[in-house]
Fold this protein.
Amino acid sequence: MKPKESFLRALHREKTARPATGSATSVVTTDLMEQTGIFFPRAHLDAELMAGLAAAGYEKLGFDNVMPLFSVCHESAALGCQVDWGSPHQMPVCRNKLAKPGDEIVIPGDFLARPECQVPLKALRILRQRYGEEVAIVGKVFGPWTLSYHLFGVQEFLMATLLEPDAVFRAIDQLKRVTLTFALAQIEAGADALCLADHATSDLCSPRAYRKFLQPVHQELREKIPCPLILHICGDTSDRIPIISQTGISCFHFDSAVAARRARELAGPDLSLMGGTSNLEIIRKGSPEMIVEEVREKVAAGIDIIGPECAVPLDSPSENLALLARTVKSLPEK
Ligand SMILES: [Zn+2]
């Protein structure tokens, strides 16, 4: 079975010869940049470089998918946020607040034509052309909750969820169109599946707020986006995995704050699970023995796609990622 088939079947919990291995978020490290000769920040801003660095996720690390949108800033930058694109040692960050939660958000008419969207769209096309038969091509969009953090500021937005819920509903309604527009363009460019990252972590969004503001929107995005979706939320999500499993989303990319067995119980039989491997303890600091044991534990817990929990810290050794992928691939076929 080709890596692409393993990955895409695992997204639907269909039978595979072995568990899949990969990630919906960035697997780039500074030493991977050194191995490829392609560095941040240029890899965020040049399609050929972006595709080249993303391809290293397959070529050098051995994962079953590639994912070229390394940062969290493309949509926000195309909407007009100022972005500091960082360095080989630092991920990009959005620098300014663009609006207040009650303001009308106008999506620029040329949103998709702006370089911050065009670069990843072109990178997806390149990856599709070079690897499309062999490897799963995964794109990434941000949901309206994360986009609100970038546009309004985290504090301002969270205050508004308590004090101005109507303004929050309106903002989410406007921003979900950004998510949908970019998602459809990425599918057209060649993405087989999309990461939907929406940072509704339990310390910033109660289960009640998740149900009220976001579950209907995630369900609507799932209905309108015609490819498998991988929802990514960091932190402890045990209180909302059962709610997520009701949205019809294919896969949940979970954080090690939820133990793998617990995540499997909460997800039920239909929601595929990806990740759950600690970036700090295993990917960054783990010994080879710990990594082999980690894979064994994830397989036993019924995790469908084995890989890091979230964007990998840039100072991690890429050999740990490669060992994780090799260990999964060396499992006896079922
Ligand atoms: Zn995350």
In short: The radius of gyration is 19 Å.
